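(Structure overview)
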Amino acid sequence: MAFYRNDPIMASSLKDLIYRLEEEGRPGLRQNISISWIRYDEPNPIAGSGRGTGWLNTKLIYPASIVKLVYGIAIEAWIQENLITDSEEIRTATYEMLANSSNNATSLIVDILTATTSGSKLKGEEWEKWQLQRKLINQWLQSLKWEELKGINCCQKTWDDGPYGREKDFYGFQNNNRNALSTDATARLLEAIMTDNILSPLSTKKLRNFLSRSLDIMERKANPENQVDGFIGEGIARSNPQLWSKAGLMSQVRHDAAWWYSKEQNPMLLIIFTNNEKLARDSFLLPAIANELNNL
């Protein structure tokens, strides 16, 4: 059962949009896009109060930098439970990971969360212990007992050009241990941040500050990696909302996870994953979907 109420009118609108976008020159779009789309009827909603729909929304897909949402929540949870001590370095790394999508900062955060480090190949008992430690984040996620999180995998660092040494071994045969998320899992995690439903209000406020995006055109031009242009934010910019988001982009995927609202509109949550090389290069698609859904 979804954590939001299924809305048949939204479902019909989403299906019509996906079919139309496929017919406009994106063969195979229906099989290579996943969406979770949720509207809220109150300006300050509580978790689980939304109505929405999805398209392949439980399909597990490599999330690229979307996984940094998980690591951001986890580092705050570890601090909250006194498993680690907060520090200026952790705060800076968490900011860089979420605000600027730094892979180097993400590497540090994963090391802190799991008490592991990258390096040369390991063998025997040392290798087995290292792998167990890396699975701590997955164990914590499963302890939440959220249906949407079953089967997901969030244990790998993110890379500029790929893993080496023990990290490459940990990816498994044919990369079968890569990170994997669904749009519904991502939606529930982002909703939890935005509604204070997973951490203390102070911790979720900190994460929201790191995820806040400027839609100012001059600021976007000054930062080509702004996580707005080519993503959901570009499609909703004309409505001048407040926006919180985290994008993911690499050669095979283009993803975004966004929550926004304005004076005229209650909050909306939209997660879009696309999964092939052609769609990853399509900087028009995510803004087009966001613009149309925002105006329905």
